[in-house]
Design a protein that fits this description.
Oligomer: single chain
Structural class: alpha+beta
Order of helices and strands: HEEHEHEEEEEEEEHEEEH
Distance between the termini: 24 Å
Strand content: over 45%
Largest sheet: 14 strands, mixed
Length: 206
C-alpha cells in the first residue's frame, strides 16, 4: 500500500465508505460507475488512465468479511465484482509462462475449476493486502489461497493444457502447468462466493 495512503488514514480516520462506484469486470478492467450507471444497472466506464489503474491496483485490499476495496487515500471504495476478486492472464515471461492478476501480481497455481458456462477459474496463492480490523486494525500482506477468473482470451490456450472429462453439469479432468499436473474440477458459478468467502456486491449492510 502507498505510504501516502497510510498517512492519510491516520490524518482522516473517519471518512465514510463508498459503495457501488467502482467495479472489476470479467476482463480485469476497473470500471467507474456513476449514479446513472448504478441506477440503470450499466457496467460503467472502463478506467483507461494508466497511473490511476496502477494506483488502484497497489491499494486493492480485502477486509475480514470478504469485501474487496480500493483504499483511495482516507476513503474506502468497495468494489463490485462481476465474477471473482481476481482475473488472471497467461503471460509470457523470461522463464516461460506465468499467470498474472489484474494487479500484475503472480498467482502460484495449484488447481482450477470449470463452471456450467465454460468459464475457467484458477486456484492458487497470491499476495493479498488484508485489513485486520478485529485484531490490529492495520493492513498486512499475506499469501492467500485465491480464486481467479481466467480471462476469456486465454481459454483456448488453457484448453491446450487440459485433459477434460465430461461431468453432469460441467467438465473435470486435469491440466499441466509448469511441469505439474493439476486438478480441474467442476463447480457451479453460484457456489464461488460462498466457497471462497468473498462478497461480490458489497453494501453498507454486508
Amino acid at each position: 500500500m502507498d505510504e501516502q495512503v497510510l498517512r492519510s488514514l491516520i490524518k482522516w480516520p473517519n471518512v465514510p465508505d463508498c459503495f457501488g462506484w467502482l467495479a472489476l469486470d470479467r476482463r480485469g478492467q476497473w470500471r467507474m460507475r456513476d449514479e446513472f450507471a448504478q441506477q440503470n444497472k450499466l457496467p460503467g466506464q472502463v478506467i483507461t488512465h494508466t497511473a490511476l489503474n496502477e494506483f488502484i491496483s497497489r491499494n486493492y485490499a480485502c477486509d475480514s468479511l470478504g469485501r474487496y476495496f480500493f483504499q483511495n487515500g482516507p476513503q474506502r471504495v468497495f468494489v463490485t465484482l462481476d465474477a471473482t476478486p481476481w482475473v488472471v492472464r497467461i503471460t509470457p515471461s523470461k522463464n516461460g509462462l506465468e499467470m498474472l492478476t489484474q494487479c500484475k501480481s503472480p498467482i502460484q497455481a495449484n488447481g482450477a475449476l470449470s463452471d456450467e458456462g465454460g468459464n475457467i477459474y484458477i486456484l492458487g496463492k497470491v499476495k493479498q493486502l488484508t485489513y485486520q480490523e478485529n485484531n490490529t486494525g492495520q493492513f498486512s500482506t499475506e499469501d492467500c489461497q485465491a480464486v481467479a477468473l481466467l480471462h476469456d482470451h486465454d481459454l483456448d490456450h488453457f484448453s491446450q493444457l487440459a485433459t477434460l472429462n465430461e461431468e453432469a453439469c460441467s467438465f473435470g479432468g486435469s491440466w499441466t502447468w509448469q511441469g505439474k499436473q493439476l486438478p480441474l474440477d467442476p463447480i457451479h458459478s453460484e457456489e464461488l462466493a460462498t466457497r471462497f468467502q468473498f462478497i461480490a456486491k458489497p453494501s453498507k449492510q454486508s
